[in-house]
Structures are given as structure tokens and as C-alpha cells.
Queue: 2 jobs
Job 1
Amino acid sequence: MKKYGFMIGMFLLPFALVSCSNEDNEVDTSHSIFGNGDADSEEPNEFDRWLTENYIYTYNIQVKYRLDDNETDVKYDLVPADYNKAFTLARIVKFVWMEAYDEVWGIQTTRTYVPKLIQMIGNVAYTESGMILGQAEQGMKVTLFKVNDLELDALDMDELNEYYFKTMHHEFTHILNQRKPYDTSYDRITEAGYVGSDWYQQRDAQALQKGFITPYAMDRGTEDFAEMVSVFVTNSAETWEGFLEAAEPNPNSAYYEEGVDGRAILEQKFDIVYKYMNDSWGIDLYELRDVVQRRQGEIDMLFN
Amino acid sequence: MKKFVLYGLWVGIACVMQSCLFSEDDLFDMSSAERENASIVEAKELLKGAANGWKMEYHYGPDGNWGVSTIFAQFKDTEVLMASDFTSDSYTAGEVATSLYKVQAYQGTELSFDSYNQVIHLFCEPNSESDPGLYGDYEFVIRTMSAERIELTGKKHGVQMVMTPITEGMSWGAHLQLLNNMDNDTDFASFKVIVNGSERQELDREYRTMVASKELENGDTEVTYHPFICTQDGIRFVESLEYDNVQAQNFKWDDETHIFSCTDEGVDAQLTYTLPEGYAELVGTYQLAAADFYGRPFTTYLMINPLKESRSYSATYYLGNGGAFSLTFNFNRNTKSLDFPAQAVGSTSSGIPIYMYVGSAAGNFYPYMDYGFYGTTVEDENGLHIVLRAGSGLAEAGMNACLFLYNSGGWYLADCWSDPVLHKLD
């Protein structure tokens, strides 16, 4: 026994004599590989500092106004947003979108559900069925396209509404739907009327007569739902009523279909939309519309 | 003794079982992250180091086949000032635009113009789903770099480009304007290639490239592109034209004779401007016959004159109220007829632009510059007639009217030519 113990000891002895140290693999804490001349080490500019204060600290949102290849689909030919236009849009978005929701359900709720990344793109993404003005992905990211079409000297409210505000409310509705789904009976109201990617072939009047608030609403149920919310909050009560009137059966219209009452359909859809926003999110759409409309009218104050 | 040997063997075996597992020789002095960072720092210093900025020979078009624009770029810490010799609707040659840039490690060391600059991004923006524009890149992988030369590859389209320092003291605006002037002065539609006194082929010019088309035996057309860059004196082909071992790359332009002459030593080659067949025949006075917005036929007169010889014509359309539209027609070399693209034609008394768009008398229209009218020339006993029809299937869909429209809180009609036909009078 002693003999075997000695032999094992002899066998193990060389291991004690050989160390596996390799000084080259020790961590050199005196030299960091970060912040050495790359983009992360750049001095923040005025827009960066404003975003830190107004988006990151306030809402924990990162706004990417410099085009990041990783955040976009390579199949689209995209160009970056213009610095000044992105800055202006960021100010408008905060005032008209986020702060409107702050007023209605409190800043803490906005912080909870608002997407954590907003990407700004200069142009639109072209597809076979038209232009993509905005995208929302899994509640985490919203992409706003067409930023470079903003005319800083002549902010046109109708254009801002059509290309930016409506898009933002539309995309945020998707995000809310992704968090809490809406009643699927909504999709069955005009199930046969959805035309998918051929929506761009429909006219506004045609869509209304069929019970769709816009031609894009005819794409599918989820887009229909988001269009209802976004069109409602970004238009005045009078304009909304105008849409409903245009949807009433009109035998003189080229798009009239006997037995189809577009207005009744829209009102039925709106009831579901209103109930969803109220019950699932505590948002009274009428109140939200009033706040959004008021803020849209106050945009000039941001720049004067 | 025996035991000593035995135990010694055990120790020896144990020793040789030790491997150099954790001991490897490094191939590089620094880690990959450190080398990446060092490359970024070096690239930024080189970019900022050129006193008068860098000249980029910017290739555009599929595989860079549509030509080369000269872009000047001066790099600061985070901003870049850029200007080019390329003119578009939104950019005038020589105008300086400022934006942000960055150098980052991604697929190698990358130079990215990641905030909008109208100088470079006008090459990158598509016009529609089916029209990708000029196939430009704004992100580049840096292949090699030194104070004298930086070689880059466009990240999306893979086209190789070169940057060299701009001569100190050179005026950006003046130089780029000279190059732009050369581009315009030499912008004729076709040239004959003469080498050692004999004609070799005809080349068509599109953008900044000379295109050779060759009919193959199977009926297909083989197209070869010869892109070039404008110089102060003429043009320089990216790759030499080659005929029977004669290589011709650099050409000087004569604005009086409209001839390019090769300046390469010992090379006798010229590119001689040739008026395309059919162009001159379309110049003249026409009677326009069309219907107005209410379907009522009317006639009026148009004098069609050369605008850019070999390429386009101009005409003035006089309105009944004293106003007038300035019209541009393009010469289509394939059909030997006139094309009438969507275009800006004038403005209202309050300065609102008026456009000609493809539409219908029912009021539908496409407010896009991609669409237009294509002429078919017919000759009969009554003379020469040009029938204008909307392209892209729109005429077949019932949209065959030239609508003159302006947007003043909604679209308004200034005039309408439905089913227009031009009858040549002289």
C-alpha cells in the first residue's frame, strides 16, 4: 500500500512542478477596447443631448436618427434622415404623441408601453402595393419613414397628420394590440371585404361605402383596427362625421352596393375599438382625440 | 536500483504527459478588438488629415456601369462637408452640404455616411418600387488606406471606388462646376468611334457611360457599358476602349467640332458626335388635336424646336388666358418619335407649380414623374403624325389624357389634352 501511495505521489509530482499560467491571457484592465475612436466615443451633438434628456431619461426610448443597417431590411433601398428634420420630428412626436398619452393615462403607463426604439428613415420603403410609411415590431420598435419630406419652413398640418401623426398612432395601436389582443369578432364584420395587398387599388369613397375607414383598412383586420384608431384621433369630430356620412348608402355613388350600409358597419367597428381601448387600456378615445387635436394645433409653439 | 528506475520512469511518463495546452503563440501583437479600434482610429485620422479634403470617384449604376461622379468630401470630427459635379432636381453642382459620418467596425472597417447628405444620397434613393434609382452606396468597407489613397467597396452593391487627396488650394466650387459643364457640353446621344482613321462602331451615351449594342445571331442584343468620369478637358474611361490592341482611355473634347480626341500617347482615336437618324425630321410646326376635359375636340399649334440636340425638344403651349406652359419632349431613338414625360410646365399667377401628369378626363391621375406619354410616328398621304399614348398600361386602362394640374390645398386642373395627336405642318 505504501508502495502504491509512493508511486501515485511520484506520478502526481510533475503536475505540481508545472504551472499552467499564461501571462498573455490575463485581463489587462488598464486598456479598454471600448470608446476608442469609434462612434461610441464621439462627443454628443445638440440633438443627441436633447434626445438623452427628452427620450431616454423621460421615456427610456432610444431614437436612432442615424441609419443603422442592422435595424432595416436590406431588400429596401433606404437613405438616412436629415439631421435637422429628424430633430424637428422628434420634438413633434414627443409633443403630439407621447405627451398626449401622458395626459390621458399618465406618464408611467406611457413609459411602460411605448416602444423602446424609434428608428427614423429619410425616404419611404417601396413595395408592390405602395409605400411603407411606418412599421411596428413586437412592441419594441417603431420605424418612421419619409422623414426627409418634412418642410421645416412650412409645416403643413394636413401633411403632418397624414404622413406622421396618423402613422404614429397607427403603429402604436399595433403595439397595444400585440400586448393585448382585441376581440376577434372585429375581423369577421367585413371579413369578405379584406383584399390584402390589393388595397391600394381601392378609392377612399369606395372603401367608405364598404365600411372601411380608409383603403388601407381593407388590407386585413389588424390594419383596419389600427386605421380606425389613428383616423379617429387625428381628425376632428366634424371630419369624422364627414367620413361616416360619406359611408352612408348612396345609390348615386359608383361604389354603392345594395344591402351594404357603410356607416352602420363603421359604427359597429368603432364600438369594438372604443370598448377595447377603454376596457383594456383605460383610454377614452374621445378624450384622447380632444388632447391630440389640441396638441396638433399647438405645434407652432414648439418652434416659436 | 530497479525500484529507482521504475519510479524514475513513472516521473518521466508523467512529465511527457504535460502538454502546452494553454501556451499558444499569438499571431498578432494585439487582440482583434484592439486591432479593430486601431484601424478605426487610423482611418479617421487619415480622413481628417487631408487639408483640402478627399476626392472620391463615385461609381453609380448597376455594377457601377452608369458612370462616375466626382465627389469632394472634407471630414471633421463628426461632420463631413460634401459637394459633387452631378446635378439633379434637388442639387446644383458645387453646392456644399454638411452631414454626419462615422467610421465603425462591422464587416471590416467601414465608412458610413449615416445622416442625410443630398450630395451622396441622391445616388441611393429609389424612385419607386420598380425603379431603384442610381444604385448608389453610402456605406463603404475600407479595403486599403494611406495618406495618398483609400480604396473602398460599396457595402450594398459591391462597387469598388477610390479616394485621393484633393490638391491643396483647389477651389471646390470652380473645379466641380468645370466638370459639370463638361458633362453638359458633351451630353450628345451618340458618337462614332474612329480608330486609325476607320470607323469601328457607334456608341450611345446614357448618363456618363458609352453604351455599345450588338445584335447577336440568335436575335438577342449584347450591351456593353463603358463608364467614364468627366475631367476638365474631356472624359476618362474607367477602362480603356480597346480595338485591335489599341487602347484609348483619355479623351479631350472640342466644343466646336463636337469631337473627343484621344490624348493617350501614340493613340489615334476619336469619338465623333453623330446626329441620330430621325431627330431633325421632328423639328417643326405641329397642329395639336385633342379633346378637353369635357370631351370637346380642339386644335392648337405647337412649334417644336431642338432643346438639347440629339436628345430633346422644347415647345411653348399658349393658354387662352395669356399664360403659357414650357414643354419638353424627348427624342426616342428606338421609335424615332417624341416622348412626353410627366414634368413641371410652369406656375400659376401666385407661383404654385403646374405639372403635366398622366390622367383621364374622369379626373383620375398619377402625380408621379415616372409616368408619361410615348409617341408613335405615322406617315401617310396627309403627312407625319405623332400619336401620344400613356405608357405603363395606363392608356389601355382608359388614362390617356395629359392633365395640367396644380396643388393648392387640393388638386386643380389648368388644362387637359385627351387623346392627343400631333400633325406636322412643315
Job 2
Amino acid sequence: MNKKCRIKRYIDALDFAIYEMVLYLDTHPTDRKAQAMFNDYKQRRADAVKEYESLFGPYITKVLHNDPKGRWEWIDGPWPWENEGDD
Amino acid sequence: MWQYDKKLQYPVKIKKTDPKAAQIIISQFGGPDGELAASMRYLTQRYTMPYDDLRGLLTDIGTEELAHLEMVCAIVYQLTKDLSIDEIKKSGFDKYFVDHTTAVYPVAASGLPWRAEYIQAKGDPITDLHEDLAAEQKARTTYDNILRLVDDPDIREPIKFLRQREIVHYQRFGEGLERTKERLNSKNFYACNPSFDKNCGRK
């Protein structure tokens, strides 16, 4: 797995961990330890995206993405159900 | 409203097509205990939930189920990509192909199209949460059965992930049920319906 793929996978793993904390916090809204874990994962995700973008350009998964380069990259493939691309 | 994250929650990278497996796995898209039913069930029930934690939980699990629906469809899509007519005939996939080509259409493995009767929104939180607990176990058993039928590790990996998520959702719904009972009369949980009756339990 190359570096681009590895960082993408790491961001995906963090996104999963973050969502898992969302569900847990829904039924444990006053759990401070869980809130701290949630914030920690979010910070690590922000750092990983920053590292990705410094090496490979914009990390685009949301339609309201940052840094539109004068062409609408949102529609660019591969789309998630296709088995193509560098990861 | 919804935003879309342009990626799968867990990777689906299938190297070998298999229309027979696709016909089985499609049940977790359009079948009675599949991800379309799960997402519609939770996203529908949430409107009349009387407590914020349940509104949050049903919204957030319902949203995750949409992501799982997407994964199941990605599996079916990759399993049926670039099939030859010979493969289509030999696998029995021709019965689906004639009506849908290789489109991903919400049916069960039996061929029965998805129906709203697969879900219930009963407007009572105790009742709805029991439906949700059962739904997660039914989905888990369906994934167990898929794992009995499928050997390809490329397919098994995302299926195992999806199965594990059902178990976690079951846990969360169990907690939701406990929180609900804590707010109601401990001598009689069924005295009133907090989704409908005024002054029913506490918030």
C-alpha cells in the first residue's frame, strides 16, 4: 500500500471511530471520557487530512469541499462503489 | 437534511465476479431484514420519539444504515460487473438480468421486491425499540447465513464488518430502551405512551 492509500485508510478508520463515538454519546451524553475520545479522534483526523493535503492536494469527500480549482472535481471518479483508483 | 460523504464506510474491493453470490447478498439491500429496511425503519420512527437521545440515536443509526446499504450495493455491483451472457445464463442470474440488466434493484434473494411492510413505526417508543432490537438480530443472522454461503475473502471482509455493526446497534438500542423505562412509571411501564399522552413519565 503506498503512502497516499495508507493515509486515506487511516482517515477512513478515524471517521469510523468518530461515528462509533457519536452513537455511544447519543445514549451516554454526559460521559466525559467518551467526549474526550471523540475530540481526540477528531483532532487526529484533522491532522491526517492536513498531512494528506500537504502531499497530495485537496482531500475531497464532501460536495462543499475546499479549494475548487476552477473545475468541478466533485464529480470526478472513481465513485465509491467502483473498484478502481489508488486505494 | 443529509450530506453525502463520497467514500464507503468500509472498503469493498472484489476481484472476482460471482452473480450467484450477488443474488444471495442482494437480500441485504432489498430483503426483509436488509439495510434499506433498517434505514427506513429508524429514520421513520425518529419523528415521534419523545426523548432527544432516542431522536439522536435513530437519526444516527438510520444514517449509518444508508452507508451500509451503499456497501451492499457496491458488493452486488462489483460481483456483476462485465459478466458474459454465458455466465449470466449458467448462474441463474438471467431471471434478474431480464428485468434489470446489471442494475442494482431492491429485491430479496427470492426475487421479491422490497416493501414498506418490512418496517413498522408504531408510535410508541417501547414498541418501536423492541422492533429495532429484533431488526438488528435478524440482520445479524442474515449476515451469518451469507458467511455460511460465501468463501471469497474479498466478499467476507465487508460482510463481517456489516455483521459486527448490527451487534453494536443492538447494544445501543438496548441502552435506549433502558433509558426509556427509567423515565416511566417503574410499577407500570405501559400505563401511558410518552409519544402520544401528555404528562406521561418524565423527560
